[in-house]
Structure formats: C-alpha cells, structure tokens
C-alpha cells in the first residue's frame, strides 16, 4: 500500500503563495510590464492567486494568462494527445517581464515546452519561473527563480497538488509507493 504524507496544508499554501508574490514584486523590473502565465492545469489558478496578491500589495492591475503546452511537448508520442485547453495570452509579450507559473517542476520538460509556446507570442524582455514545489530530478538545465517548497524526492514518488479551483481543496501530498 502506498504511503501518503501531507507536504503543505491549506494555510501553508496560502502563506507560500503570498511569499512568492512578494518575491516576484521584489525582483520584478517595472511592475507595469509584468505578465504572469500559468501552465495548465494547476499553474493557471496559481498564477491567478499570485496576480491577485500582487495587485493587493501594489494596488496595480497585473496581466495574467494561461498556456497549454500540449502541442509543444517533446514526448507527445509517449503521453498521448490530451484535449488542448485554450491558451490565453492577454497581450503581445514583447518587452514584458514574463513569469511562468506551475505547481510542480520535475524533469523540466513542461517548462521547456512552455518556453517554446511563449515564443509564439512575442519576445519578452525576460522569462522567469515560479513553482509551488520543486521536487528535483531535472533532465534539462532549467531552474526555477521562485520556489514555494524545495522537496527532495525519490524518482518513484509522486507529488500531488490539489487546489480549490480544480480539485475542491488545497493540499500538497507526497505519495511513496
Ligand atoms: O517537470 P515535468 O517533468 O514536466 O513535470 C511537471 C509537470 O507535471 C505536472 O503536469 P501534468 O503533465 O501531470 O499535467 P496536469 O498539470 O494537467 O496535471 C505538473 O503540473 C507540471 O506541469
Ligand atoms: O511528481 C510529480 C511529477 C511531475 N508532476 C507532478 O505533478 N508530480
């Protein structure tokens, strides 16, 4: 039977998102050029939460969008085609400070695909990466700039993120076989 351990509680997720929002503000250039792009599935609500918190702290409207990386995966043949969710990029990204947002980073292949997807919407001034959980085991030279939780894991383990918007609850768990 597999073992399940809670890694982040709802309160810890709330505090982590707030901290990440503050870090993004601290390191952003001009906040009026900031664009947060959430990666489907759970990166999208996370990007919206971060945006909301940045807007509360800075009293500014921040652009937020969503990316579906399905067509940009390098392993489409292995994972099979999913119905692509709609990519929503609110503006030309040329000259913008783009922050990609995802729930988990593992191999880094999702982010590689997201970089290719973003490329079709202009040439940003910079692209950084915010993740809720970095579980290690990268297969590409990709490193997040903003990390909610560094979580050393074994390859055979799984990190599962639940969010209210997609799953009806906030929780991060580590599942060991
Ligand atoms: O660094 P990687 O090895 O690419 O893994 C990380 C990705 O895996 C999960 O997405 P998944 O493909 O399971 O889709 P989902 O977000 O729709 O659940 C997670 O949400 C990340 O996007
Ligand atoms: O454990 C993992 C690996 C990739 N993506 C996840 O969401 N969890």
Q: If you had to describe this structure to a student in words, what would you say it looks like?
A:
The chain is an alpha/beta fold and 177 residues long. The protein has five helices and eight strands, in the order E-H-E-H-E-H-E-H-E-E-E-H-E. The strands form two sheets. It has a five-stranded parallel sheet. The N and C termini lie close together (7 Å). The structure holds 1-O-pyrophosphono-5-O-phosphono-alpha-D-ribofuranose and uracil. 1-O-pyrophosphono-5-O-phosphono-alpha-D-ribofuranose is lined by residues 39-42, 102-110. Uracil is lined by residues 104, 106, 135, 158-159. InterPro entries: PRTase-like, PRTase_dom, PyrR, PyrR_bifunctional. This is Bifunctional protein PyrR. Keywords: Glycosyltransferase, Transcription, Transcription regulation, Transferase.
Question: Which key terms come to mind for this protein?
Answer:
177 residues, alpha/beta, Rossmann fold, five-stranded parallel sheet, three-stranded antiparallel sheet, 8 strands, globular, binds 1-O-pyrophosphono-5-O-phosphono-alpha-D-ribofuranose, binds uracil, transferase, PyrR, PRTase_dom, glycosyltransferase
Separation of the first and last Cα atoms: 7 Å
Count of the domains: 1
Work out the helix count: 5
CATH class: Alpha Beta
Strand content: 25-35%
Nutshell version of this structure?
One of its GO terms (molecular function) is uracil phosphoribosyltransferase activity. The chain has helices spanning 10-27, 43-58, 76-79, 109-118, 164-167; strands at 3-8, 34-39, 63-67, 97-105, 126-134, 146-150, 158-162, 171-176.
């Amino acid at each position: 039977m597999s073992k399940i351990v809670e890694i982040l509680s709802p309160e810890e997720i709330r505090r982590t998102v707030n901290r990440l929002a503050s870090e993004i503000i601290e390191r952003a250039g001009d906040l009026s050029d900031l664009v947060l792009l959430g990666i489907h599935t759970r990166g999208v609500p996370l990007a919206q939460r971060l945006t909301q918190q940045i807007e509360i702290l800075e009293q500014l409207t921040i652009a937020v969008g969503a990316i579906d990386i399905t067509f940009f995966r390098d392993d489409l043949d292995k994972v099979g085609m999913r119905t692509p969710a709609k990519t929503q990029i609110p503006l030309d990204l040329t000259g913008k400070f783009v922050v990609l947002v995802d729930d988990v980073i593992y191999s880094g292949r999702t982010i590689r695909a997201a970089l290719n997807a973003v490329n079709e919407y202009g040439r940003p001034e910079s692209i950084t990466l915010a993740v809720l959980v970095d579980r290690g085991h990268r297969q590409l030279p990709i490193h997040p700039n903003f990390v909610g939780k560094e979580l050393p894991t074994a390859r055979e383990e799984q990190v599962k993120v639940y969010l209210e918007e997609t799953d009806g609850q906030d929780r991060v768990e580590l599942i060991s076989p």
